[in-house]
Design a protein that fits this description.
alpha+beta; five-stranded antiparallel β-sheet; 2 helices; 21% helix
């Protein structure tokens, strides 16, 4: 089953994203990813495209509880619609 995740990342690094959206495939790996940065710009990646430093992870995403247990991260399971709307914004921003 494909599912969708948004992870808020609380940190002080200027060059790192503050929100990470992932479409997670049946195998637990990212299919598509969007990173939202503090200044509002978005970057995205899928199997055919990587923008900036954004790329798909080489490791499975892991359980939501595991992500929540890590300091500085707040995960949210989101709807496909929310992911798709954010994906469309990221792709349009690059065009």
């Amino acid at each position: 089953m494909v599912w969708y995740l948004r992870v808020e990342w609380f940190h002080d690094f200027r060059e790192e994203p503050v929100d990470i959206y992932s479409e997670v495939g049946d195998d637990g790996y990212e299919v598509r990813k969007i990173e939202v940065f503090r200044d509002g710009h978005l970057q995205y990646a899928d199997e055919r495209h990587e923008a900036g430093e954004t790329s798909l992870s080489g490791a499975p995403v892991g359980a939501v509880a595991e992500i929540a247990a890590q300091p500085g991260f707040r995960p949210h399971v989101i709807s496909e619609q929310e992911f798709e709307e954010t994906w469309a914004r990221a792709v349009a921003a690059e065009e």
